[in-house]
Amino acid sequence: MRSRFFTPLRPGGILRWSTACILAGGMVGMTGCERKYVATERDQKMAQVQSKLVALDAQKAKLAGGEVENNFNLPGLGFYHAEARDFFEYPYGFEQDGRWFVNGKWQDQPQAEAAVAASRPTPEALKKVEDALDREQQLLASQDKGAFATAGHNSNQGLGCGTALMMYWLISGNRGSYRPGPGFQQAGVQAATWQRGVDDQRRSVSAYASANPGYSRLVAQSNRSGNTVTAGQSVRGGFGASGKSSSSAT
C-alpha cells in the first residue's frame, strides 16, 4: 500500500483539525527558521583582515621575484606605475578635473590600458622602498613583539607585518641590481617574526569563520558580488541562524 503524508480527516479518525493545524504550523515554522544573518562590526573587521591576507598571498610570488604589478598599492609608498618603474601618490589612470595621471605625469587624454603589466622598480624606487621599510620597522618595534597590526597608522591601507614583508620580499628579489643597506639586514632578522604574525592572524580568521557560519556566507556573497562585507548587511542563513554573531576571535 502506498503511504501518504496526510491521512484523510474523519470525525472519528486519528487526526482531528486541531492536530492537523499543529503539524501544519510546525512545517511553516521550519521554513521560517531560515533567517537572515546580519553582519556585525566584528564581521566587517574580520573580512577586511581576510581580504588583505588574500591580497598578500596573491602578491608574494611576484614581489619575491622582484616585480610589482601596475597600480599595486604598497602602503607607505603609493601606487606603482609599471612603465615608469616607480611609486606615485595617485593610481595609474587616476582622473581629476578632466586630466589623467599616468606614469607620474598629468595628461589631457585618458590612458585606456597600461602598456606594461609588471616590472622591476628602478634603483631609486627601491631606495624609497628601503626607506619605507626602515620606517615600518620602527613602528613595529614600538608595538609588542610579533604583534599583527590591524589598526593604527595603516588600518585602512594594509597590515603592519604584511606591509613590512612585502617590502622585504621586493628588495630581496632585486638584490642582483640593488645593494640594500643595514636596515634591510635587520629586516632579514625580523622577517620570520613578521611571518609568524601573519600566520597567527590567518589562524584567527579561520577559527572565526569556523565558529560563525553566517560570516562565511557573508564572505562568499562578497566574493560573488565584488562588494565588501559591511556591518548591517544581511545574507540568508540556515536553520537556526540569527542576526547576532555568537562568538568572536581574538
Your description of this structure?
This protein is α+β, with helices and mostly antiparallel strands and 250 residues long. It is built from six helices and ten strands. It has helices at residues 17-32, 41-64, 123-141, 160-172, 182-211, 213-225, and strands at residues 34-38, 68-69, 73-74, 78-81, 86-88, 94-96, 99-102, 105-107, 118-119, 234-239. The protein has a three-stranded antiparallel beta sheet. A three-stranded antiparallel beta sheet has the order 6-7-8, with no helix packed on it. Strand 4 (78-81) and strand 5 (86-88) form a beta hairpin. Helix 2 runs parallel beside helix 4 (160-172) and helix 3 (123-141) packs antiparallel against helix 4 (160-172). The longest helix is centred in the C-terminal third of the chain and has 30 residues, at 182-211. The chain is flat.
